[in-house]
């Protein structure tokens, strides 16, 4: 970085309080942010590390509905669990608060109101899906349907979890409400929008020209969004759970969670420092760093900066180091499928082994691409590195000193070339670790830190103090003095990565105060200093321990499969209930007609979509339909007649404009069959 800042404000993405924290969260956000915060504190810099729970997301209302409790019940439960787990795992937040706090509601409302009064929002009336049976507008996650890109029939209104494509509810084919199972209707509603297109010019300059040092995955995603052109984004939604929109005429509307949540960083800072918070958010000498996962890049690099810029008095982030996703045993981590390693369960089942997990997650950090956590790899990192390299060196240095010098630091004598070489190599570690930490390369930084233990092991093996002790105790004293100085350096360099281990090493050495400036020094322990009691730093993790964890995951997978089979069987065994009664006038609005198929073919790069070209009696029209799986030879449909809805608004899908909807009947086993007239009629004939 070119500018010298006086202080650093670190934020970490706010986890949804609808479930516990898992290793994907840790690897993506919380371990790297904690490493960085600890590093800056060791350097003596002024640092603030802000965390908290995001308690207004749709996943929370979904969870509450499933459990038959209130959203507040859900967030109270998980906020406390998450907060406790983070603390036990050694994540050193200066504050970990929540977005249901009164100060957050006040801060978010004031932020909205200031932008509103400055005319930074546009008011738009639009049509959104409404569930007439549940009598409410549907948030994106309450709508499912067929993905127009990959044909996944269970895509959500905001994203398809099968292909990862971001969606809007209008993109879905055959949408339905998850609340009632009914087909939603479009109703008009008014919302406030942040006109991101208005901010596109300065965002392009700020990111693409002024922050080329950002990680390639962050920079690339931002460039993609900017190149596509930014669009206004709603900052409110129809919901009863969240921060109420604080203006007249907004009854029943709350702040959209993407607008509300990042303001939580500000409100949590205000909660911690009510009289001094502004210097952290409004002083140009403060460096703001957001640690996030890749699914949050657009919000923290484009949307939140646009909000801050529109408000006018806040600083913008200097860097947004984002990681990719961590998978588990070759499969995507899934909260809904319970396919995860939950932090609170790990802490219970592996007491005292926080650093074994911290080390593995950092060694496998998904910094440039998605990576995989396996229990065998966890075992290998623990046994082959922590036990065999770091633990082995520290243990030998301590045990030999106790054996030959009564647990006191021996005097250093005349240095040999071997000594000077080991000291020189050890001194290089500081620069290598600093370079990587300053550039957010945590995986490489930890590797360089662990290299100090490798240097120590090689030095002991080459110097052989157990042999020199037989004839030259002065030489033995020098070897062990240098080994103990390396051990003290290890207490410093491992602290950001392995804080519990660093604390143990300090207790072994019987010293308390360390800071980063001491790293590379070889006079950290004075001659005659009495050492503390030592023990093994790490213990091996046996095969049966990891096999038990692997079996636990396999049992989860079997349970999921059984549940899926049960669900499918239940769906097959029953005819779906009749939907709510509608007025005849509503039915009259539908223009259902018969068309003759002129062409029919699969849409390229999809599994489910067919492209129909119909003669509708007036013209030819294109309609896309997700029934390819049931008609493997679509050419056979040419010449047949099908029923279709003629007056649906056109939709762009996969490079085509779909002008209607082909009608299909869904069997009890989920298969689809086209609805056709029993005998040929004229193209364009209405179904009455």
From TrEMBL:
Cofactor note: Binds 1 zinc ion per subunit.
Top EC class of this enzyme: ligase
Residues covered by the TRNA-binding domain: 586-688
Catalytic activity entry: tRNA(Met) + L-methionine + ATP = L-methionyl-tRNA(Met) + AMP + diphosphate
Main localization of the protein described in the UniProt heading: cytoplasm
Cofactor(s) listed in the protein's UniProt record: Zn(2+)
GO molecular function: ATP binding; metal ion binding; methionine-tRNA ligase activity; tRNA binding
Location of the motif 'HIGH' region: 15-25
Assigned keywords, A-Z: Aminoacyl-tRNA synthetase, ATP-binding, Cytoplasm, Ligase, Metal-binding, Nucleotide-binding, Protein biosynthesis, RNA-binding, tRNA-binding, Zinc
One cellular component (GO) term of this entry: cytosol
Function: Is required not only for elongation of protein synthesis but also for the initiation of all mRNA translation through initiator tRNA(fMet) aminoacylation.
Similarity section: Belongs to the class-I aminoacyl-tRNA synthetase family. MetG type 1 subfamily.
Name of the molecule in the record: Methionine--tRNA ligase
Organism of derivation: Fermentimonas caenicola
Gene name as annotated: metG
């Amino acid at each position: 970085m070119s500018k010298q800042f006086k202080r650093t404000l670190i934020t970490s993405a706010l986890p949804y309080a609808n479930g516990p924290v898992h290793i994907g969260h840790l690897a993506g956000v919380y371990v790297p942010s904690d490493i960085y915060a600890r590093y800056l504190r060791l350097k003596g810099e002024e640092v603030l590390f802000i965390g908290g729970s995001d308690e207004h997301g749709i996943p929370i209302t979904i969870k509450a509905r499933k459990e038959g409790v209130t959203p507040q019940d859900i967030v109270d439960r998980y906020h406390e669990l998450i907060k406790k787990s983070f603390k036990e795992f050694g994540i050193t937040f200066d504050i970990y608060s929540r977005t249901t706090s009164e100060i957050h509601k006040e801060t978010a409302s004031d932020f909205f109101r200031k932008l509103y009064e400055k005319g930074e929002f546009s008011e738009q009336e639009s049509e959104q899906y409404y569930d007439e049976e549940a009598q409410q507008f549907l948030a994106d996650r309450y709508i499912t349907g067929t993905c127009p890109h990959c044909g996944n029939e269970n895509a959500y209104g905001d994203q398809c979890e099968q292909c990862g494509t971001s969606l809007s509810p209008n993109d879905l084919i055959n949408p339905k409400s998850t609340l009632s199972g009914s087909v939603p209707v479009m109703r008009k509603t008014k919302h406030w929008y942040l006109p991101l297109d208005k901010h596109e010019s300065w965002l392009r300059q700020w990111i693409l020209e002024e922050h080329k040092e950002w990680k390639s995955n962050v920079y690339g995603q931002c460039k993609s969004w900017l190149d596509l052109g930014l669009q206004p984004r709603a900052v409110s939604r129809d919901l009863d759970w969240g921060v109420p929109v604080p203006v007249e005429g907004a009854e029943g509307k709350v702040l959209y969670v993407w607008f509300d949540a990042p303001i939580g960083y500000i409100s949590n800072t205000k909660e911690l420092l009510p009289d001094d918070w502004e210097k952290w958010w409004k002083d140009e000498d403060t460096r703001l760093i957001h640690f996030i996962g890749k699914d949050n890049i657009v919000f923290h690099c484009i949307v939140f900066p646009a909000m801050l810029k529109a408000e006018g008095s806040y600083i913008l982030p200097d860097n947004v180091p984002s990681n990719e996703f961590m998978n588990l045993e070759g499969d995507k981590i899934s909260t809904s499928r319970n396919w995860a390693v939950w932090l609170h369960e790990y802490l219970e089942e592996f007491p005292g082994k926080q650093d074994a997990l911290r080390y593995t997650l950092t060694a496998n950090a998904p910094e440039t691409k998605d990576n995989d956590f396996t229990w065998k790899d966890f075992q290998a990192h623990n046994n082959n590195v922590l036990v065999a390299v770091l633990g082995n060196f520290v243990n030998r240095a301590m045990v030999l000193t106790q054996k030959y010098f009564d647990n006191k630091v021996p005097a250093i004598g005349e240095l040999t070339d071997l000594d000077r070489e080991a000291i020189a190599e050890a001194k290089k570690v500081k620069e290598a670790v600093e370079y990587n930490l300053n550039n957010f390369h945590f995986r490489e930084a930890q590797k360089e830190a662990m290299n100090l233990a490798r240097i120590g092991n090689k030095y002991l093996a080459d110097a052989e103090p157990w042999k020199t002790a037989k004839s030259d105790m002065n030489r033995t004293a020098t070897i062990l003095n240098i080994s103990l100085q390396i051990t003290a350096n290890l207490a410093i360099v491992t602290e950001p990565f392995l804080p519990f281990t660093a604390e143990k090493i300090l207790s072994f050495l019987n010293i308390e105060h360390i800071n980063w400036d001491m790293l590379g020094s070889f006079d950290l322990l004075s001659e005659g200093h009495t050492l503390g009691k030592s023990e093994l730093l790490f213990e091996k993790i046996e095969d049966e321990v990891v096999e038990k964890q692997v079996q636990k995951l396999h049992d989860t997978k079997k349970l999921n499969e059984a549940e899926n089979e049960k669900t499918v069987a239940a769906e097959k065994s029953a005819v779906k209930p009749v939907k709510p009664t509608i007025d005849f006038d509503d039915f009259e609005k539908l223009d259902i007609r018969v068309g003759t198929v002129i062409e029919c073919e699969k849409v390229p790069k999809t599994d489910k979509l067919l492209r129909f070209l119909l003669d509708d009696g007036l013209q030819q029209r294109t309609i896309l339909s997700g029934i390819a799986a049931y008609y493997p030879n679509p050419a056979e449909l040419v010449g047949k007649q099908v029923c279709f809805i003629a007056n649906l608004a056109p939709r762009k899908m996969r490079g085509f404009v779909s002008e209607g909807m082909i009608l299909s009947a869904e069997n009890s086993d989920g298969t689809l069959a086209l609805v056709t007239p029993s005998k040929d009629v004229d193209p364009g004939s209405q179904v009455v």
